[in-house]
Amino acid sequence: MNTVRMLSAAVLAVLAGVLVAPAAQGEPAATTQPEVLAEIPHDPDAFTQGLELADSVLYEGTGLAGQSQLRTLDPATGQVDRAEPIPGDYFGEGITVVGDRIWQLTYQDGVAVQWDRATMTPVREVPLAGEGWGLCYDGQRLVRSDGTDRLRFHDPGDMGELGGVDVTRDGAPVTGLNELECVEGRVWANVWPTDTIVRIDPGDGAVDLVVDAAALRERGIPPSAQVLNGIAHVGGDEFLVTGKDWPTMFRVRLG
């Protein structure tokens, strides 16, 4: 092999190496803990499935068949101002406010219920394929979880499905996505059956922050209480969080 051929072969080998080299991995998602700013009473019999603050009113959706409700609460005191039963004895799940309406998912009943926000009365029911877990509104579309590693996007007008994204943490699927909160281009999600919250980029599904909230249980949460489930954005990096049958709601700083 002459010198020119040797050089050509060397160049080709280098280029081949570049082409087949694995893509660089991103930095692992950072992990943090919530900073507790206040403790607020919460109904210990509320099987919390959805939590959202809108115009100084805290909305809560609760679950269990025959017991599910849509509620309004005072966010400062935790007092329940109004509680309406979900129609059909459905098993209620996540909720979100969209203008003058509220959408509430059902677990395995195959429908989503739309409520009139002012009167707290059901307006209609629409078919929902698959299970309903968490729900939030990013200003353009609804984002739904179903207990898997997938976030599904829906039309806020009629719940028509618009696509979705699979969620990963450091390249691995994150399953058990539960109650959701959409905040400034990110989706915060409780991860069932843990006391962990993840922050997700809905563009590519990557988790970019993990919140280990297990220490909240040391603040008077009984062992019988179920998992953390309920995230309501207050403003900036402040949130209200609680859990299923938790006697306390926490105002926390995340991030």
UniProtKB/TrEMBL annotation:
Against Pfam families, the record matches this protein to: Glu_cyclase_2
Q: Which residues form the signal peptide?
A: 1-23
Alphabetically sorted, this entry's keywords are: Signal, Transferase
**InterPro entries with a match to the protein in the record:** QCT
Keyword Signal in annotation? yes
One MF term from GO for this chain? glutaminyl-peptide cyclotransferase activity
Q: What SUPFAM superfamilies would the database entry show?
A: Calcium-dependent phosphotriesterase (SSF63829)
Is Signal included in the keywords of this UniProt record?
A: yes
Task: Give the protein name, as stated in the record.
Answer: Glutaminyl-peptide cyclotransferase
Q: Which organism is it from?
A: Mycolicibacterium poriferae
